[in-house]
Write a structure and sequence with these properties.
By secondary structure, the protein is of the alpha+beta class. It contains 3 helices and 12 strands. The chain folds into 2 domains: 3-51 and 252-321; 71-233, no CATH class.
Amino acid sequence: MGLAASQARFLGITARKSNIEYEGQQVNQQRTALAEEVNALYSKLLSLKVPVAPDTTEFYESNYSFSISDKTNNQDGEYIVKNYYENDDGSYYMDVQRTYDKNMAEQSDLSNQWKIVTSPDGSSYSLVNIKDDTTYDLTLSSDPTEIKSLIESTAGIQPLPEGTENLYTYKDSDGKTHYIPDVQVTGYDAVAEQNLIYSYMKINKSVTETTTFDNVQVTFDGNNRMSSITIPGVVSGLDVDTTRTYDSEGYDAALRDYTMSKDEYDKMVADLNAQTESLQQEDKVLELRLNQIDTEQNELQTELEAVKAVLDKNIENTFNTFS
């Protein structure tokens, strides 16, 4: 290889080596950027709050409870102490939740399909179903005063019309007794356009309400638990029980929330892992290219050194010719 050819080859290899070095720098920068993205994803993964399943023990509540049997003063029922605090004089103020059975009147509107029919002489009355002519004989209630008072005192039920003295009854197909105010019973067919017909049924319903007691005297046992109470004008020396109740609805709701949170957490983890895996695959491709660049760089360096040796030899021979 002549001097000119050697020099041209040397310049070409040098240029190629420079380009390869620049490409290697670019690949390293890309790998650095990928590493930063991976670290950001890892930090995000670590910052995720892992959902914790609800603990059943957290849904048990200890309560004080007691029973009072006093229907005369409308204080009978089961009581649960919801809140209490000590007064300045050593007595206690209490908010209690009371559950008891209450007689109530349930109202139904019969005007859409019922009418009241009188006998020809007006001595008797019947309740007739307009659709199928089912007939119930109306009889005077044996205790109209009781049901009248019950209806008038029940929340949400309209009082019976003023002047009502008697109530008529009929028994439905289930054998339940219904009461009809006599003021609705007229001497003609009481169809819907002429009169609204209401019946009332006596029911027994469980009612829960909040009751407040003040100046309650409380006795505590050796474990500092309430053991007995005295409520002025109500009871004296009444035993108090400590009960534990389990909030199954609260636990079920918490479990649903946990399941939803866990599904969201698992999806976020899966997404982050997938993104990380994708970045790692890109990095492997770049690493492979960098290895190829290193190999090519070594080969160019070897060839460059060989060409440089030839070039040096040519220069030496040229100078020797003219010496």
